């Protein structure tokens, strides 16, 4: 997307990447855009948009991720400083918002407990049937021309416990910064 998030009258380029990087580029010089800000999310970004969403006068960037999470970055200051020895007082609007969020959280916790109880009762009945949940996998296998390697990216809307890679030819697994996996090698029986 392109949006004037800085407020200088020139639109910036908002980029959401499939590796989870959210980047803002500006066009101060006529040659190349310059990276002004970046933020790393934990999953690929499916969509990005700039606009005024939450509070009038404060522009925001909204990004939706592969699993459906919506992340917002705002220009509204989030920190307030009090004077020396002076306690920070919350406005009535902020107190009501906090109270509303606490009530919503308690309601959701009660709902989760009820659903867990329903699940426990249904799973212990004699007519219960077990099934593997259906979920979609977002996968990419791309060639990196710089170092002649392939990058395998897997995203699932649930935790990934194991990934098995089997190859007919010898392969080297390279570690990357974003990788949180523990790699284990085992030789394969040729027959």
UniProtKB/TrEMBL annotation:
The keyword Electron transport does not apply. Residues 133-190 form the BBS7 GAE domain. It comes from the Eukaryota. One of its GO terms (biological process) is cilium assembly. Pfam families: BBS7_GAE, Beta-prop_BBS7. InterPro entries: BBS7_GAE_dom, Beta-prop_BBS7. GO terms for cellular component: axoneme; BBSome; ciliary basal body; membrane; neuron projection. Residues 1-75 form the BBS7 beta-propeller domain. Keywords: Coiled coil. This is BBS7 protein.
């Amino acid at each position: 997307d392109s949006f004037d998030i800085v407020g200088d009258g020139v639109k910036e380029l908002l980029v959401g990447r499939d590796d989870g990087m959210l980047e803002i580029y500006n066009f101060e010089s006529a040659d190349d855009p310059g990276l002004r800000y970046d933020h790393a999310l934990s999953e690929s970004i499916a969509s990005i948009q700039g606009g005024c969403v939450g509070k009038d006068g404060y522009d925001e960037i909204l990004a939706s991720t592969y699993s459906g999470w919506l992340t917002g970055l705002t220009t509204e200051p989030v920190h307030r400083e009090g004077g020396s020895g002076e306690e920070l007082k919350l406005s009535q609007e902020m107190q009501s918002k906090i109270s509303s969020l606490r009530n919503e959280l308690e309601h959701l916790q009660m709902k989760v407990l009820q659903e867990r109880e329903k699940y426990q009762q249904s799973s212990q009945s004699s007519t219960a049937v077990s099934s593997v949940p259906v979920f979609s996998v977002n996968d990419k296998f791309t060639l990196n021309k710089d170092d002649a390697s392939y990058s395998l990216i897997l995203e699932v809307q649930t935790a990934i416990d194991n990934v098995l890679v089997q190859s007919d030819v010898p392969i080297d697994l390279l570690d990357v910064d974003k990788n949180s996996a523990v790699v284990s090698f085992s030789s394969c029986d040729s027959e």
